[in-house]
Amino acid sequence: MPNSFDVARPVLKLGHLTALAEGSQRVIYVHPHDPNKLVKVLKTIPDTKGRARLATFTERHFPRIRTRWARKEYTEYLRMMLRITVSDVPPITHMFGFTFTDLGLGCVTENVQDDGLGQTLYAMRDTLTAPDLALLNDTISRLYRYDIRASDMTARNFVFGHRDYAGTKGPRECVLADGFGDIHAIPVRSWGRWANGLGLDDSCKRLAVKTGLQWDAKHRQFTQS
Ligand SMILES: Nc1ncnc2c1ncn2[C@@H]1O[C@H](COP(=O)(O)OP(=O)(O)OP(=O)(O)O)[C@@H](O)[C@H]1O
Ligand SMILES: [Mg+2]
User: Fold this and answer.
1) Average pLDDT for runs of 10 along the chain of length 225
2) How far is Cα 36 from Cα 167, in angstroms, rounded to an integer?
3) Is domain 4-223 in CATH 1.10.510, yes or no?
4) Which atom of ligand 1 is nearest the CA belonging to 152?
5) Ligand that lies nearest to the alpha carbon of residue 163, given by its number in the listed order
6) Residue 209: half-sphere exposure toward Cβ, Cα within 13 Å
Protein backbone atom coordinates (compact mmCIF):
# COMPACT_ATOMS: atom_id res chain seq x y z
CA MET A 1 0.00 0.00 0.00
CA PRO A 2 1.72 3.26 -1.12
CA ASN A 3 1.77 6.04 1.39
CA SER A 4 1.03 9.61 0.29
CA PHE A 5 4.73 10.33 -0.28
CA ASP A 6 5.04 7.57 -2.91
CA VAL A 7 2.38 9.13 -5.14
CA ALA A 8 3.66 11.61 -7.74
CA ARG A 9 1.80 14.80 -6.96
CA PRO A 10 0.74 17.12 -9.80
CA VAL A 11 2.57 20.43 -10.01
CA LEU A 12 1.58 23.64 -11.77
CA LYS A 13 2.41 23.22 -15.48
CA LEU A 14 4.18 26.23 -17.01
CA GLY A 15 6.62 24.57 -19.43
CA HIS A 16 4.19 24.72 -22.39
CA LEU A 17 3.39 28.42 -21.84
CA THR A 18 5.06 31.44 -23.43
CA ALA A 19 6.77 33.58 -20.81
CA LEU A 20 5.26 37.03 -20.27
CA ALA A 21 8.62 38.65 -19.49
CA GLU A 22 11.98 37.86 -18.00
CA GLY A 23 14.55 39.53 -15.82
CA SER A 24 18.16 38.56 -15.29
CA GLN A 25 17.24 36.04 -12.57
CA ARG A 26 13.65 34.96 -13.16
CA VAL A 27 11.20 34.06 -15.94
CA ILE A 28 7.68 35.44 -15.50
CA TYR A 29 4.48 33.55 -16.46
CA VAL A 30 0.82 34.49 -16.12
CA HIS A 31 -0.69 32.07 -13.60
CA PRO A 32 -2.53 29.46 -15.74
CA HIS A 33 -5.52 29.41 -13.34
CA ASP A 34 -5.72 33.11 -12.46
CA PRO A 35 -4.71 35.85 -14.96
CA ASN A 36 -4.52 38.38 -12.10
CA LYS A 37 -1.50 36.56 -10.74
CA LEU A 38 2.00 35.87 -12.03
CA VAL A 39 4.38 33.02 -11.28
CA LYS A 40 8.08 33.91 -11.15
CA VAL A 41 10.48 31.00 -11.62
CA LEU A 42 14.18 31.23 -10.85
CA LYS A 43 16.27 30.58 -13.99
CA THR A 44 18.72 27.71 -13.99
CA ILE A 45 22.34 28.77 -13.51
CA PRO A 46 23.30 28.32 -17.23
CA ASP A 47 20.35 30.56 -18.25
CA THR A 48 21.34 33.54 -16.16
CA LYS A 49 23.18 36.41 -17.82
CA GLY A 50 25.37 39.41 -17.01
CA ARG A 51 25.58 40.56 -13.41
CA ALA A 52 23.34 37.69 -12.34
CA ARG A 53 25.69 35.19 -13.99
CA LEU A 54 28.60 36.50 -11.96
CA ALA A 55 26.45 36.18 -8.86
CA THR A 56 25.62 32.57 -9.73
CA PHE A 57 29.35 31.75 -9.59
CA THR A 58 29.27 32.56 -5.89
CA GLU A 59 25.87 30.93 -5.53
CA ARG A 60 27.15 27.63 -6.96
CA HIS A 61 29.55 27.41 -4.03
CA PHE A 62 27.20 28.92 -1.45
CA PRO A 63 23.72 27.70 -2.55
CA ARG A 64 21.95 29.60 0.25
CA ILE A 65 22.84 32.87 -1.51
CA ARG A 66 20.77 31.76 -4.53
CA THR A 67 17.58 31.84 -2.50
CA ARG A 68 18.55 34.82 -0.38
CA TRP A 69 16.59 37.28 -2.56
CA ALA A 70 13.38 35.35 -1.86
CA ARG A 71 13.91 35.43 1.88
CA LYS A 72 14.70 39.17 1.81
CA GLU A 73 11.78 39.97 -0.50
CA TYR A 74 9.25 38.09 1.64
CA THR A 75 10.63 39.55 4.87
CA GLU A 76 10.11 43.04 3.47
CA TYR A 77 6.61 42.24 2.22
CA LEU A 78 5.70 40.82 5.62
CA ARG A 79 7.20 43.80 7.44
CA MET A 80 5.06 46.15 5.34
CA MET A 81 1.83 44.16 5.62
CA LEU A 82 2.06 43.95 9.41
CA ARG A 83 2.28 47.75 9.62
CA ILE A 84 -0.06 49.18 7.01
CA THR A 85 -3.86 49.40 7.26
CA VAL A 86 -6.59 48.46 4.81
CA SER A 87 -6.82 52.04 3.49
CA ASP A 88 -3.11 52.16 2.60
CA VAL A 89 -2.07 51.30 -0.96
CA PRO A 90 1.10 49.16 -0.94
CA PRO A 91 3.74 50.61 -3.30
CA ILE A 92 5.09 47.07 -3.83
CA THR A 93 3.36 44.03 -5.29
CA HIS A 94 1.42 41.64 -3.06
CA MET A 95 3.05 38.24 -2.70
CA PHE A 96 1.02 35.06 -2.42
CA GLY A 97 3.61 32.45 -1.46
CA PHE A 98 5.29 29.67 -3.38
CA THR A 99 4.11 26.86 -5.61
CA PHE A 100 5.88 23.88 -7.15
CA THR A 101 5.93 24.03 -10.96
CA ASP A 102 7.35 21.82 -13.71
CA LEU A 103 10.07 24.50 -14.11
CA GLY A 104 11.06 24.67 -10.46
CA LEU A 105 9.86 26.61 -7.44
CA GLY A 106 7.49 29.41 -8.44
CA CYS A 107 6.85 32.61 -6.55
CA VAL A 108 3.21 33.75 -6.91
CA THR A 109 2.62 37.48 -7.05
CA GLU A 110 0.03 39.93 -8.34
CA ASN A 111 -0.06 40.87 -12.01
CA VAL A 112 0.18 44.60 -12.76
CA GLN A 113 -1.47 44.61 -16.16
CA ASP A 114 -2.46 47.04 -18.88
CA ASP A 115 -4.18 45.30 -21.80
CA GLY A 116 -1.75 42.46 -21.20
CA LEU A 117 1.72 43.23 -19.95
CA GLY A 118 2.08 46.29 -17.72
CA GLN A 119 4.77 48.63 -19.04
CA THR A 120 7.93 49.33 -17.09
CA LEU A 121 9.32 52.77 -16.30
CA TYR A 122 12.30 51.72 -18.43
CA ALA A 123 10.08 51.17 -21.50
CA MET A 124 8.29 54.49 -20.89
CA ARG A 125 11.28 56.62 -19.91
CA ASP A 126 11.32 58.68 -23.14
CA THR A 127 7.56 59.16 -23.34
CA LEU A 128 6.56 59.52 -19.69
CA THR A 129 3.43 61.68 -19.45
CA ALA A 130 2.74 64.13 -16.61
CA PRO A 131 -0.03 61.87 -15.14
CA ASP A 132 2.35 58.88 -15.13
CA LEU A 133 5.10 60.97 -13.53
CA ALA A 134 2.56 61.84 -10.82
CA LEU A 135 1.84 58.10 -10.33
CA LEU A 136 5.58 57.40 -10.02
CA ASN A 137 5.98 60.22 -7.48
CA ASP A 138 3.00 58.96 -5.48
CA THR A 139 4.66 55.53 -5.28
CA ILE A 140 7.98 57.10 -4.29
CA SER A 141 6.22 59.01 -1.47
CA ARG A 142 4.68 55.77 -0.18
CA LEU A 143 8.04 53.95 -0.32
CA TYR A 144 9.36 56.62 2.07
CA ARG A 145 6.19 56.84 4.18
CA TYR A 146 5.97 53.07 4.76
CA ASP A 147 9.75 52.86 5.14
CA ILE A 148 10.11 50.16 2.45
CA ARG A 149 13.65 48.84 2.08
CA ALA A 150 14.32 48.63 -1.65
CA SER A 151 17.83 47.72 -2.68
CA ASP A 152 17.29 47.38 -6.45
CA MET A 153 15.06 50.24 -7.58
CA THR A 154 15.76 49.97 -11.30
CA ALA A 155 13.53 51.41 -14.02
CA ARG A 156 12.65 47.84 -15.13
CA ASN A 157 11.31 47.05 -11.65
CA PHE A 158 8.60 49.79 -11.68
CA VAL A 159 5.52 48.64 -13.58
CA PHE A 160 2.55 50.83 -14.65
CA GLY A 161 -0.87 49.23 -14.92
CA HIS A 162 -3.83 47.97 -12.94
CA ARG A 163 -4.04 45.52 -10.06
CA ASP A 164 -6.96 43.37 -9.08
CA TYR A 165 -8.70 44.52 -5.90
CA ALA A 166 -10.96 41.67 -4.71
CA GLY A 167 -12.29 40.95 -8.20
CA THR A 168 -12.39 44.59 -9.34
CA LYS A 169 -9.90 46.19 -11.71
CA GLY A 170 -8.07 48.84 -9.72
CA PRO A 171 -7.04 52.31 -10.91
CA ARG A 172 -3.89 52.87 -12.96
CA GLU A 173 -0.86 52.76 -10.64
CA CYS A 174 2.89 52.56 -10.66
CA VAL A 175 4.07 49.57 -8.59
CA LEU A 176 7.52 48.39 -7.54
CA ALA A 177 7.31 44.75 -8.68
CA ASP A 178 10.81 43.58 -7.74
CA GLY A 179 13.92 44.80 -5.96
CA PHE A 180 12.49 45.29 -2.45
CA GLY A 181 14.19 43.84 0.61
CA ASP A 182 17.58 44.70 2.03
CA ILE A 183 19.88 42.42 0.05
CA HIS A 184 23.13 44.21 0.90
CA ALA A 185 25.89 42.21 2.63
CA ILE A 186 25.97 44.91 5.32
CA PRO A 187 22.24 45.62 5.78
CA VAL A 188 22.58 49.36 6.28
CA ARG A 189 18.98 50.03 5.23
CA SER A 190 17.75 47.92 8.12
CA TRP A 191 19.47 50.09 10.72
CA GLY A 192 16.48 52.37 10.98
CA ARG A 193 14.10 54.69 9.12
CA TRP A 194 16.78 57.41 8.79
CA ALA A 195 19.29 54.97 7.23
CA ASN A 196 16.67 53.60 4.86
CA GLY A 197 15.71 57.18 3.91
CA LEU A 198 19.32 57.83 2.86
CA GLY A 199 19.32 54.55 0.91
CA LEU A 200 16.11 55.50 -0.91
CA ASP A 201 17.61 58.96 -1.66
CA ASP A 202 20.60 57.26 -3.23
CA SER A 203 18.45 54.83 -5.27
CA CYS A 204 16.27 57.70 -6.54
CA LYS A 205 19.33 59.70 -7.57
CA ARG A 206 20.55 56.73 -9.61
CA LEU A 207 17.10 56.13 -11.07
CA ALA A 208 17.02 59.75 -12.26
CA VAL A 209 20.29 59.26 -14.16
CA LYS A 210 18.92 56.11 -15.86
CA THR A 211 15.57 57.63 -16.82
CA GLY A 212 16.53 61.21 -17.76
CA LEU A 213 14.34 62.57 -14.92
CA GLN A 214 15.56 65.08 -12.33
CA TRP A 215 15.61 64.19 -8.64
CA ASP A 216 14.42 66.95 -6.33
CA ALA A 217 16.20 65.81 -3.16
CA LYS A 218 14.48 68.41 -0.96
CA HIS A 219 10.93 67.31 -1.82
CA ARG A 220 11.92 63.71 -2.60
CA GLN A 221 10.10 63.80 -5.94
CA PHE A 222 11.06 63.42 -9.60
CA THR A 223 10.59 66.28 -12.04
CA GLN A 224 10.81 66.62 -15.82
CA SER A 225 12.61 69.43 -17.59
N1 LIG B 1 4.09 41.98 -10.72
C2 LIG B 1 4.37 42.25 -11.99
N3 LIG B 1 3.42 42.72 -12.83
C4 LIG B 1 3.71 42.98 -14.12
N5 LIG B 1 4.90 42.76 -14.70
C6 LIG B 1 5.89 42.29 -13.93
C7 LIG B 1 5.68 42.01 -12.54
N8 LIG B 1 6.83 41.52 -12.04
C9 LIG B 1 7.71 41.50 -13.04
N10 LIG B 1 7.17 41.96 -14.19
C11 LIG B 1 7.84 42.08 -15.48
O12 LIG B 1 8.83 41.07 -15.59
C13 LIG B 1 10.15 41.65 -15.66
C14 LIG B 1 11.13 40.80 -14.87
O15 LIG B 1 10.61 40.55 -13.58
P16 LIG B 1 11.52 40.64 -12.27
O17 LIG B 1 12.08 42.01 -12.20
O18 LIG B 1 10.72 40.18 -11.11
O19 LIG B 1 12.65 39.57 -12.64
P20 LIG B 1 14.12 39.44 -12.05
O21 LIG B 1 14.84 38.43 -12.87
O22 LIG B 1 14.04 39.20 -10.57
O23 LIG B 1 14.70 40.90 -12.31
P24 LIG B 1 16.17 41.51 -12.15
O25 LIG B 1 16.77 41.47 -13.51
O26 LIG B 1 15.81 42.91 -11.71
O27 LIG B 1 16.88 40.70 -11.10
C28 LIG B 1 9.99 43.07 -15.13
O29 LIG B 1 10.98 43.95 -15.65
C30 LIG B 1 8.58 43.42 -15.62
O31 LIG B 1 8.61 43.77 -17.00
MG1 LIG C 1 13.72 42.98 -11.90
Assistant:
1) 67 97 95 97 74 58 67 94 96 97 96 95 97 98 97 96 96 96 82 92 97 98 95
2) 9
3) yes
4) 26
5) 1
6) 6
